[in-house]
Amino acid sequence: MDSTGRSKLKLSVVACLYVIIVLYSSVEQVSCGAERILTQVRPRIVENHSRSKHDENPVQKSVQRCPRRCLCYFNVAYCASKQLTILPAKFPPGIKYLHLSKNKLKIIPRDKLGMYPSLNTIDLSDNFISQDGVKRRSFANLALLKRLHLNGNKFTHFPSSLPPSVVELKLDNNSISVIQSESTQPLGNVTSMDLSRNKLTNAGIRNSAFLAFRSLVNLDLSFNKFESFPKDLSSSIEDIRLNNNRIKYVTTGVFRFPAKIHHLNMRGNKLKETSFSYQSWANMDKLIFLDLSENNLLFVPGVLPRSLSILLLESNNIENILEWSFSSVPKITQIRLSFNNIRHIDPAAFASLQNLQYLDLAHNQLLHYPSNMPINLQAVFVEFNAISNVHGDAFCPAYAQTTFQRSKLNMIVLIGNPVNRRSLFSAASYCLSSAEVLVFD
Ligand SMILES: *[C@@H]1O[C@H](CO)[C@@H](O)[C@H](O)[C@H]1NC(C)=O
Ligand SMILES: *[C@@H]1O[C@H](CO)[C@@H](O)[C@H](O)[C@H]1NC(C)=O
Ligand SMILES: *[C@@H]1O[C@H](CO)[C@@H](O)[C@H](O)[C@H]1NC(C)=O
């Protein structure tokens, strides 16, 4: 049997026996890989409820006092969902973790929580607290407080008098429209802040109020009402979520100094290709992940940060991929363009992207399998297009020396295309090696 015949045989075995199972498990693996990247970029802080060796022994603890409707266990008091309207008293003296979420609290009385200076975490989420319910000494004397959860309350302004020791601050799901710099000034130790699902606008951020967060790493501003990228952010930020706002422009002045930001989510805004200029990305030369999905892009934006590794452009209105569409992102490893209206791809568009490994063109209107793919590409997703013919050299890498040069492709997903099998088998006999998975229906 000649090598072409062998390749055909392997191909049909793969196609007939493994079709769907191989496909879906592999797809999952690849998208898991992508998720893993995301998780690495956004570290989560995990609460540690285990006892430190300085805690008193459990026998002593079990006879400790505890408010009537709460459960106390070691250094934890659990009072969630108890219809509480006033803050309970008489917690165990060494308490570290206080759970008060889903109650009906409106006011945090002054100096009450300060009676428990060992508090590390207070969860006051889903209550009825507004800025009027937080007094000047509501959180006084809590020098060890690291985590404060005030999400799902009634704040319309960023509360003042929050404890300066706080590292993780949750204020999401309130109605905050104004942030004054006087209230943010003491919060220089906050590393993770969630302000998603509020009513923030650009004008509501007064006097560069965000600059005070000198240690901020993770900032969530998603589901607000920003119309342009908020200015004067702290250069310490590594990960910012601005998805689901109304952003039309990324103007200059986002970061005053070279910033550490590597992960930026701007999905679900009103961005066009004209929304960006070279100045938009000033001081963002560490950015590796950019999500511009679900915007109003007709073309791939011509000016993107050169450092990008992962670019998401799903669910826009892109019709054509031009020769220079990706020339501003030479280091790109992953491009996702699914759910656009792509009909035409210039043969030179991807060819010289030496680092590109993953290309998603699913749910577009391609008539041909895109050829001239870069040498290191490993996975191509083109399901649900209108691909019928696969050209003979379609799987051969761009600038191949011979028609037999093997590509590194190990996954090609062709489901939901009216593929002509004869053209597919013939194309596959050239540059695919036997380990590759090829799927169609
Ligand atoms: C939790 O804290 C204990 C004691 O302080 C420590 O030994 C343990 O490693 C911590 N666990 C995690 C997951 O941080
Ligand atoms: C927002 O907060 C309310 C309580 O104020 C809660 O019922 C709701 O589940 C929260 N929504 C989200 C998305 O967290
Ligand atoms: C802020 O963090 C620094 C470094 O961890 C620490 O020394 C300082 O005491 C913290 N400030 C407050 C107010 O807790």
TrEMBL record:
Pfam families: LRR_8 (PF13855). InterPro entries: Leu-rich_rpt, Leu-rich_rpt_typical-subtyp, LRR_dom_sf, SLRP. Keywords: Leucine-rich repeat, Repeat, Signal. Transmembrane segments: none annotated. Residues 1-32 form the signal peptide. This is Uncharacterized protein. It comes from Clavelina lepadiformis.
